[in-house]
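User:
Hi there, any thoughts?
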Amino acid sequence: MIKRLAIAAFITALGSQLSACKATPLPEAHSKGYETYINPGDTFRHTQLINIDGEPVRLAQGNKLIILFASWCSDSQRTLNELKASQLMADPQLQIIAIGREEDADTLKAFRTSFGIDFNLIADPDRAIYSQYANKGIPRLIMLDNQNRVVKTLIGEQAGIIEQVRWQ
């Protein structure tokens, strides 16, 4: 009986400690622990990337939309579908670059064909690019101005995120 009471007391104490840890606010930027390593006003670290066809992609003049995504992710797929249906696709001054986190060129080529994407796709198989901008969470949208400075960053886990992509 004493052994049972000791075990019950231990479980109760452990439970209260764990719930107290959960209730303590963490110094994270997002409730899911997502951290963003680039902020409005910062300059985007990459000025040239290599697309899945082996061609260099330089950041152009004008506004840029960088999308960090994964082809298997339903949130990424929804965001890309929203983008394809948006007026952003008709803007000749907007450069769109999508970077596939933990994706290789062959997978992204198949995804481009099946998904009907006509903007540059960049493979990032080892997170070398992604890890410079965030710790986790996809899709990530990074809006850049004419000087490649960050205007805004968004985490696209909810529907309608493309509606928030505005440079004004």
The chain has one domain: 30-164. Residues 4-29 have pLDDT under 50 and may be disordered. The helical segments are 2-23, 74-84, 105-115. The beta strands are 48-50, 56-58, 64-69, 95-101, 120-124, 140-144, 150-155.
